[in-house]
Structures are given as structure tokens and as C-alpha cells.
Amino acid sequence: MLVRIVQVFAVLNTVLLAGLLYVWGRNWWQIRSKHTLGLVMFSFFLLGENLMMVYFFILHPGLNAWIHNDQMVPPIAQTALALLRVLQFIGLAFLTWVTWD
Amino acid sequence: MEAALWYVLSGTRGGANRARILRALDERPRNANQLAEDLELDYKTVRHHLEVLEDNNVVTDSGDDYGKVYLPSESTRVHWDTVEEILEKVT
Fold first, then answer.
1. What is the pLDDT of residues B74-88, one digit of tens each?
2. B82 with B6: CB under 8 angstroms?
3. Looking at CA atoms only, how far is residue A88 from chain B in angstroms?
4. What residues of chain B lie within 8 A of the CB of A30, using their CB?
5. Least crowded by CB within 10 Å, which of A64, B8, B30, B91?
């Protein structure tokens, strides 16, 4: 269950960041300034981070088996991982809300 | 103020159109109807953009109930070099 939260929110964060990168990338294409570039770089690297989460915790066969095993990764560690994904999602959701405007 | 200007005009999906609206209002104050016509934008879209611009204190209105005109705010005027930098690149 906890691992499922990590997986679902890693995907949701990836989707939000792809949307942000799309909007900011288009604006950067039009307005070549350090401000627009900064937003592109931010979303690009955070998208990279979440794509790695998707790879490590959903696609990678070894790590995926490992993280699901309570003996290997105790629930408290799984909770910490899930909490990080959920908090990042809330932050990104608000940022997407004001950016999609 | 500068950060807000940058974000509202170049950090959001509707930024380019908001920049066009601000440029038109700098030429001369106009109401929402005139803006929609002059910029060939949907009236409701213009209304929404004006709301966002006003919310961020980028533009102010004349205060009339009907057909009120909008103009760049005082703080936007103070940071006009920033606005110009953005407007230059938005067509």
C-alpha cells in the first residue's frame, strides 16, 4: 500500500512536471531570458528526478521486488518515501494551477 | 513586483496574450470590448486576463461601472524597463 502511494505519486508528479515543462518551454522559446530559462531548467531536472523514481520503483525488476519486501525496506522507510512524493505533488499541483492560467 | 511581472507575463500559459494586452493599454487605455476587438481575442478571454493582471496589480481600472477602461498601474510604470524587455520578444 505504501509502495503503491510512492508509485502512483511518482507518475502524477511526472505528468504535472511534463505540463509545466511544456508551458515554460514554449515561453522560453519565445522569450529567451534568464527568468524563462530558470523555469525550464527547474522543471527539466525535477522531471528527471521523478522519471528516475518511476524507473527505480516501477520498472526496475530488482529494486521493485526489494522495495515491496518489508524485511528489506521497513514500513517506516516506505512511509518516508511516500510522504516525500505526496508533499512534492501538493507543491507541484499548486504551481501547475497558477501556471496553467 | 518584478518577479510578479515576469511570472504573469512570461511564466504562465496565457502570458503572451497578457503581454499583448499590456502593450495595447500602454498605447492608450481601453475597455475589455475594445481590447477583444483590437487584439482579435475572445471577450471572455480578455476579461479573464484583465482579472489576473488586476489581481497582480499590473493594471488598474477607471472605476466606472459600465465599460470601464484599463491602464498600466503605477508600479508597472516604475518597472517599465522590465515590461519592455518582455514585450520586445512577444509578438
1. 999 999 999 998 998
2. yes
3. 20
4. 16, 89-90
5. B91
